[in-house]
């Protein structure tokens, strides 16, 4: 195996959670060149993994929104770059039209895709001359690793290796200095995924009482306003300035704990090894959650949002041992209710 192409185009959480596939391939084929095709919006994150030899990217999302001529020219140039190499194997672990088109355009001897029933869009099937096995009964992230390993005939270590190395920042982090910071990622991509502001405030006050300083990141003006509402209810909480993904990643890496919704940046916190709690309200925890006992945990589920005491218990479970309370679960619940 001399050259491998991974096709995973979007989104942030998926890009992050696919990094262990690279580590698995690197162990199985140490001398292989590993390339990755993705949307330009996520290319920098892939470049944080030194095991990826070449990142092929095009502004697909940007072109879909703006239909700009310059973006179209970039896409055309990226096709030429894609076809400049010949691959022993192309691995489409996305399974939709746009990823299938990339897989089809690549010069690959074997182009792997999911079986029809496992595809995100059935029409993607045209691109493949080989198929992964039936989707395993496990979460989406481990499922990708199983599919690729079974197809290429290797085994892997169950502990995922994300191998992300952040580039240095030119300026200081935006986090409050000299404090143990808890970052609360309250923002979501859809209203149905939100957790109520009052619950965020209650969680923030509880963390403040445990000696943490609350930091609230945001991406849109609406998210900034929601952060300001939470901060107004939590003593000492700060709404961070607008950050790039790289700046936000550094803030995550410097935080003592991260609590947030099922979003890409919270997946990044897990990948960077921070104590992390992910809250589910409208998506499947079993399918999209993560778990690293004592460090990362998912709570809530599909249309079953957790209450504050459940989130506080989850936070307790990922805190360093010296910081964990000796209180019983019942006392934790009472403390959470009393702080509202």
Descriptive overview:
The protein is an alpha/beta fold and 340 residues long. The protein folds into two domains: 3-152, 3-Layer(aba) Sandwich (Rossmann fold); 181-338, Rossmann fold. It is 39% helix and 17% strand. It is built from 13 helices and twelve strands. The mean pLDDT is 93.
CATH topology annotation of the largest domain: Rossmann fold
In what range is the share of β-strand residues? 15-25%
**What's the N-to-C terminus distance?**
59 Å
Element pattern in H and E: EHEHEHHEHEEHEHEHEHEHEHEHH
Family: Belongs to the glycosyltransferase 9 family.
Organism: Caballeronia sordidicola (Burkholderia sordidicola)
InterPro entries: Glyco_trans_9, LipoPS_heptosylTferase-I, LPS_LOS_Heptosyltrfase
Membrane topology: Peripheral membrane protein
Explain the layout of strands and helices.
Layout: E1 3-7, H1 12-28, E2 33-39, H2 43-47, E3 54-58, H3 60-66, H4 69-82, E4 86-92, H5 97-105, E5 107-113, E6 130-131, H6 140-152, E7 181-185, H7 197-209, E8 213-216, H8 221-231, E9 238-239, H9 245-254, E10 257-261, H10 264-271, E11 276-280, H11 285-288, E12 296-300, H12 308-318, H13 329-338
Parallel strand pairs: 1-2, 1-4, 2-3, 4-5, 5-6, 7-8, 7-10, 8-9, 10-11, 11-12
Membrane topology: Peripheral membrane protein
Protein name: Lipopolysaccharide heptosyltransferase 1
Pathway: Bacterial outer membrane biogenesis; LPS core biosynthesis
